[in-house]
Amino acid sequence: MKILGVNEYNIDSCISIGIHVQSGKGDAWKDIIKIEDRELDGDTVDKIALIAPDATISIIRDYYVAEKYTVKLDDHVIGLARCSNPNCITNKGEPVSPEFTVVCRKPTQLRCRYCDRILVDISNNLL
Ligand SMILES: [Zn+2]
After folding, report:
1. What tens digit of pLDDT does each residue of 17-31 get?
2. How close is the Cα of 4 to the center of ligand 1, in Å?
3. According to the model, what pLDDT value does residue 27 have?
4. Which of 48, 58, 70, 111 has the most other CB atoms within 10 Å of its CB?
5. For residue 88, how far is the Cα from the chain centroid?
């Protein structure tokens, strides 16, 4: 919800949240966020991929699934998260975008291109 930037004060359409919903594939479970009248831009989808690499996005138009895809985490992440090192050049007010290389995918870990600090707590460092 934080990535999507929606809360009860800034959205006029219906939001439904399902937690631990049976997915229809055996014993699998999933969580669901459904937001009406909203399509996601590329940066938002990339941020979702950082914290939920197996997430599926479904675009529903006129009651039918118009698009359905699994998010994809690229090998390089630019400008989506901040480095956790307060002394990193990307945190010093310089015109330098944070850049990371994905060093682990389960769980997701990123290495800063500038200071080599490994970023583990991604959800609390999203921009
Ligand atoms: Zn850094």
Report:
1. 999 988 876 778 889
2. 25
3. 77
4. 48
5. 23
User: What pLDDT digit, counting tens, does each position of 38-48 carry?
Assistant: 888 899 999 99
What's the token pair of residue 91? 């945190």
Residue ranges of domains in the chain: 15-70, 76-125
Q: CA 23 from chain center: how many Å?
A: 21
CA of 2 to the centre of ligand 1 (A): 23
For residues 34 and 85, what is the distance between their CA atoms, to the nearest angstrom?
A: 35
Confidence of residue 102 (pLDDT cuts 50, 70, 90): very high
Q: Quote the tokens at residue 18.
A: 């399902």
- In CATH, the number for domain 76-125 is 2.30.30.20
